[in-house]
Amino acid sequence: MRWSVRQTIGILLAGLVLTGCAQRRQNTVVVPQQPTPSPFAANPPVGAVMVPPGQPQPFPIATQPQPSFQPQPPPSFQPQPQPGFQPQPPPSFQPQPPPSFQPMAPPSFPAPPPSAPPGPTGSLPGPGSVEQTNYTWKPATGYVPPPLAILSPPPPLPSSPAPWTTPTPPPVVTLAPPTNSPAPSPSPVPAPALAPQLDAQVLLLPPQPVDATPSFYPESTNSTSSKDPPASIPKFSTVRKNIESGLKPLGAEGFDWLKANGYKTVLYLRLRGENTDEERKLVEDRLMTFKSIEVNPQLLEKDSAEEFFRTVQDANYLPMYVYGREEALTGGMWYLAFRLLDNESDDVARVRAGPLGLRAGAGTPDLMIQAIRKAMAGEW
Predict the structure, then answer these.
(1) Residue closest to 248 by CA, chosen among 166, 348, 352, 321
(2) Can you tell me the distance from the alpha carbon of 45 to that of 53, in angstroms, rounded to the nearest whole number?
(3) How far apart (Å, rounded) are the C-alpha atoms in residues 54 and 231?
(4) What pLDDT digit, counting tens, does each position of 288-340 carry?
(5) DSSP states along 207-221
(6) Helix H or strand E encompassing 240
(7) Total-model pTM
(8) Is the pLDDT of residue 56 over 70?
(9) What is 26-74 written as a DSSP string?
(10) Among the four residues 29, 37, 82, 255, which has the most C-beta atoms within 10 Å?
């Protein structure tokens, strides 16, 4: 509404200004000036009216007074009320009184069943119960009272704890070294007396390999002697019955001992290009069979391993002594026999081949271990 009033006032003022300007234009009369002699009188300009002096003007000039301009004040704006709108007075507020509160009576409860036993004397009745007079309690039909359980008193606690007794240590058994004599008949041996201290240290013998006969090792009627090998046969070790392994015997004394103890075959594991004429002569001079298999620790060949397996399984060659110039050769070949013929696990084969010469070390042992890994991977 305010914006419409301003617009109306501006339009009125603009109209008044334009009306005044138009009236001033109509009342204005242009009076020409009298010409003065000048060098240009002979050539008056085009359109000029020359009036001789003393002659009347062709256009009478009527001088009229200009009307005074009185600005009109803007009309006063009176807002018109909207038709049909009648302001209503606010309704009078009458506070309502709060509703009256009526307390409710407590609900009534039914009377207890007649089969309930009476309460103890002096007890208060429950809410809503009705006190009955001359009431006699009767048990329900088929009701059997439970039997009374009589608990026995707990056992008395001991007045003092039992005395502490020192446990008796087990008797000490002294093991004697094994002997070659036949075992005596079993007889009851009394338990030795408990000695406070051992006079001598008990030394146990190292465990001996289990004499379990594998399927690929044949049995033989011949057997080796139980005599200890001479010092001329280093690393002498029993692989199984009738098969021993070690290093090359030192001189003729070692071969004489093999012949004297009933060995039939000597198997020599040689390196590539090694000459075996001396070993062959020492063995054959003593009427034993000499066998030789070439073993290359850098590249183990499948033919060499298969020939070794066939030789140790042939019963005609037993008893047999297997040796090599280096113990890594014999230990590696026996490891393959334990894995491929006995179907032993890697751990068991390592334990059995360790005393026979399969040990880690620089040179031939490391080369032999690498060759065994390639052979077990199928890279013959």
Answers:
(1) 321
(2) 19
(3) 182
(4) 999 999 998 888 899 999 999 999 999 999 999 999 988 999 999 999 999 99
(5) PPPP----TTSPP-S
(6) strand 237-240
(7) 0.43
(8) no
(9) HH--PPPPPP---TTSSSPPTT-----TTSPPSS-----PPPPP-PPPP
(10) 255
- Please report where in the chains the tokens 């000029």 appear, as a residue: 48
Q: Given 3-state DSSP classes, what are the helix, strand and coil percentages for the chain, each rounded to the nearest 5?
A: 25, 5, 70
Query: For residues 94 and 38, which has the higher predicted lDDT (pLDDT)?
Result: 94
pLDDT tens, residue by residue, 218-273: 444 344 444 577 888 999 999 988 999 999 998 899 999 999 999 999 999 999 88
Cα 143 from Cα 350, distance rounded (Å) = 83
AA identity, residue 343: N
* The residue to which tokens 């041996």 are assigned: 189
Read off the pLDDT band of 352 (50, 70, 90): very high
What tokens appear for 29 in the block? 């009369």
Q: Residue for token digits 């230990």?
A: 331
* pLDDT averaged over every residue in the chain: 74
**99 token code pair:** 């509703």
Reading the block at residue 177, the tokens are: 């070294």
Strands 237-240 and 243-247: antiparallel
Structure tokens, 373 = 């890994």
Residue located via tokens 């109306």: 8
Say how far apart CA 201 and CA 364 lie, in whole Å: 40
Q: What is the DSSP string of 286-334?
A: TT-EEEEEE--SSS--HHHHHHHHHHHH-GGG-SEEEEESSHHHHHHHH
Q: What angle do CA 253, 291, 239 make, to 5 degrees?
A: 70
